[in-house]
Amino acid sequence: MSWLKRPVKGLLLDISGVLRDGDHVIPGSLEAVQRLQASGIPFRLVTNETQVTVEKTVEKLTKLGFTGICPSSIFAPAPAVAAHLRENSLRGYLLVHPNVLPQFEGVETTEPNCVVVGDAAEHFNYERLNQAFRVLLSLRDKEEPMRLFSLGKGRYYKEEDGLCLDLGPFTAALEYATGAQAQIFGKPNATFFQAALKDLSLSPEEVVMIGDDIVGDVGGAQGAGLRGVLVRTGKFRASDENHDTVKPDAIVDNLSQAVELIMNQNL
Amino acid sequence: MSWLKRPVKGLLLDISGVLRDGDHVIPGSLEAVQRLQASGIPFRLVTNETQVTVEKTVEKLTKLGFTGICPSSIFAPAPAVAAHLRENSLRGYLLVHPNVLPQFEGVETTEPNCVVVGDAAEHFNYERLNQAFRVLLSLRDKEEPMRLFSLGKGRYYKEEDGLCLDLGPFTAALEYATGAQAQIFGKPNATFFQAALKDLSLSPEEVVMIGDDIVGDVGGAQGAGLRGVLVRTGKFRASDENHDTVKPDAIVDNLSQAVELIMNQNL
């Protein structure tokens, strides 16, 4: 298998659709993570989840039986953009879900000079979108850049009662209204993968990303120089195997099979 | 003046920014309309107003002193799209302002197979956008065209408390989420101008459009083969005089001046 010709020194794993599907563990994933932890191959979790804090994500994983995972090993867009705002002393208009607000502790929100769009779901409304729009236009009027930061660019996702609009359409609305172009935090942005690589102290060629999203996970990782492996779980669809633009380095049934192959190779 | 070399046999007038500005008559417009009515030069009003019915528009104009204007002489996107739905027996999911709903009398709304986006303003919310989104995806699933009709494509407009998002950004959001491309009813769509021309029984070369929107009014009219005259009232900005793509056939101070010039020419 050509994707294993180069040794795998570290892994990046998506959470939703790889470790769990909603409130259910994907069969074999619990054991696969335990094998990785026992083997000493380092891994990080990279997720575009923007409705909760990484602490809540750990809590949820722990409940499902995934142990030994700490918040600092999870890379999510909200803490990434919050760090960007703090480092650059930017004051944010936070159009995000209330559940993720704790992630923005220490970020100034008075007299905002940038807009952050997360998956606010039912908290998206005309008034808040209008406020975000006015912040961007006020920047334009001051001849400052219209800083619009988006925690991903997803079109929609599946909830129990059907498909739901993700944050991407709302970012597109603000782009259309203002002419600004959003800077994306999260997958498939290369910067996002690089932050996780830096934390692993590994180079892109040494690391494999495993995910269920052909574009966000596999294409994104490949764009950052990593190998990208697609699993046939989560949002995977048969048509992904013949995607127009993204060719995964490998397609496996699930995380368990990917880890099995890597273990055999690394013996 | 070259734009008057060809006789002007009819006129199309924008309402907001040409006849009135909010609740105020634009100086000279009342007399200009009376002169037109006395002269026998036919005219129609073309507006992208989508928050009220044409009957309400007439009522508002009458209150300001504009008399002798009937609803059938006003061309607005909502009655145009409502007619399209009725003629094609389409069932609409109406994401529009409640005030404009009477315009959709006789349009079926159960089991919708198309989406109509108007300026719903504060009635835009996550739930309704999600419902519209699901209608479009259900059409895709049935391999039907994703019929998305938008009553214009404005980015924003001015209210007393500041700039406000128009319907365009919300149409853009649904386009981004679904991959559908909206069909625009209203200016600058050529079909919209053609309907008004047909009602005048005149050809495009015989008619002049007068408006304050360099792109929607002037560019739109020119695209449909009419002459387009820009007024320096309403939303006009000095930078419009050197617009990148649209060159008005003439720029005049206001409607009054345009009518004066046309009258002298038509003697």
From TrEMBL, chains A, B:
UniProt record similarity statement: Belongs to the HAD-like hydrolase superfamily.
Enzyme Commission number: 3.6.1.1
Pfam families from the UniProt entry: Hydrolase_6, Hydrolase_like
Entry function: Phosphatase that hydrolyzes imidodiphosphate, 3-phosphohistidine and 6-phospholysine. Has broad substrate specificity and can also hydrolyze inorganic diphosphate, but with lower efficiency.
Enzyme class: hydrolase
Any one GO molecular-function label of the UniProt entry: metal ion binding
Main location class: cytoplasm
Alphabetized CDD domains for the sequence: HAD_PPase (cd07509)
Gene Ontology CC terms: cytosol; nucleus
Keyword annotations: Cytoplasm, Hydrolase, Magnesium, Metal-binding, Nucleus
Gene3D superfamilies: HAD superfamily/HAD-like
Protein name per the record: Phospholysine phosphohistidine inorganic pyrophosphate phosphatase
The reaction(s) this protein catalyses: diphosphate + H2O = 2 phosphate + H(+)
Cofactor(s) required for function per UniProt: Mg(2+)
Native source species: Orchesella cincta (Springtail)
InterPro entries: HAD-like_sf (IPR036412), HAD-SF_hydro_IA (IPR006439), HAD-SF_hydro_IIA (IPR006357), HAD_sf (IPR023214), LHPP/HDHD2 (IPR006355)
Phylogenetic placement of the source organism: Eukaryota, Metazoa, Ecdysozoa, Arthropoda, Hexapoda
Superkingdom of the organism of origin: Eukaryota
Subcellular compartments: Cytoplasm; Nucleus
